[in-house]
């Protein structure tokens, strides 16, 4: 990824849905100006969702997603349809592609109802407009387009661009809590699980947000925090730490200095702080044999002392005084049925877009299962949850 690239979690996700042979893949290629998806006259050519992060004018940085046909049949076809519906969970903006020569099917109307239920912005594109003579726009937000001739493609991109503008984030990670020239200390431990030669994404994002607010950032490891604080002529406004060393950093940071973690900031940034805080109490009510799901939004090589699969289970069992059963998911994996779990512990979600993170939290709540993220869980287990939330009043 180039230094100027926008991470997928920060891009608007635009997904194309429709029946087989409606021309979804052809339309995706026409909109992007690239051969992003394989195109043929054979029904069901797109067998898995195809994703591409790109810069697309006038839309800006986006992720374009081409999905399998919603009318695919057979055992494999049913799995493909399931995959297509799962893409709804991470969609910010949908394009429903309908074959203009056939008209809207029951499956089209079903996906349209889901878009409305989820309150997702959408555009209906009647493709193959070059093959019909009579045009009657009876569908809301509909356009006639032709991936073959290029008709309506510019209008479709302009329509999508208008939606993207409305979806642009106005949220910030930490800059709203700072004033120009405030000093912030970022505690970033470098251990065996730290990526070689770089900072992890939440650390990069927070550092950039501090600089954008014209505040000053000092970066050190947890082992150097005490020394760093002693060298400052004035107390820093805030200390932001990696959650793994929350306990030690809290002990080394005077109580009159604000303290929080990158993970807590990410929960706030995604707009999910309140429901995740509510999951804290469940850590104390766990019983022997309870099942706990630990889920991460990214996929990475597991280290010998990995936080998700090693440290977090040990901390939770030690705090709750129980022996538990742990399950682990990563990337786009997230269970359909969550009813067997007593608690879900999720990462900060920096690689997931807001729609995906919100859906996971909502889905978990609908199952009656408490959910908390890494930073809030570690803060609670160290007895400093209230302190970690103090910066947000």
Keywords:
alpha/beta; four-stranded parallel sheet; 13 helices; 14 strands
Descriptive notes:
The protein has 393 residues and is α/β, with parallel strands linked by helices. Helix content is 33%, strand content 18%. The chain has 13 helices and 14 strands. The protein has helices at 24-32, 74-87, 106-117, 153-167, 201-212, 225-231, 246-252, 262-269, 273-277, 307-320, 354-366, 374-381, 385-389, and strands at 12-18, 50-56, 60-66, 93-99, 122-127, 142-144, 183-187, 216-220, 238-241, 258-261, 291-295, 325-329, 343-346, 371-373. The strands form 3 sheets. It has a 6-stranded mixed beta sheet with strand order 2-3-1-4-5-6, with helices on both faces. The radius of gyration is 24 Å and the shape is globular. The two termini are 37 Å apart. Mean pLDDT is 88; it is low at 42-46.
Summed up, what is this model?
The chain is an alpha/beta fold. The chain contains 13 helices and 14 strands.
Average pLDDT number:
88
β-strand number: 14
> Strands of the largest sheet, in order across it?
2-3-1-4-5-6
Low-confidence stretches: 42-46
Q: Beta-strand percentage? A: 15-25%
Specify the biggest β-sheet: 6 strands, mixed
Query: How many whole angstroms does the radius of gyration measure?
Result: 24 Å
The outline comes out as: globular
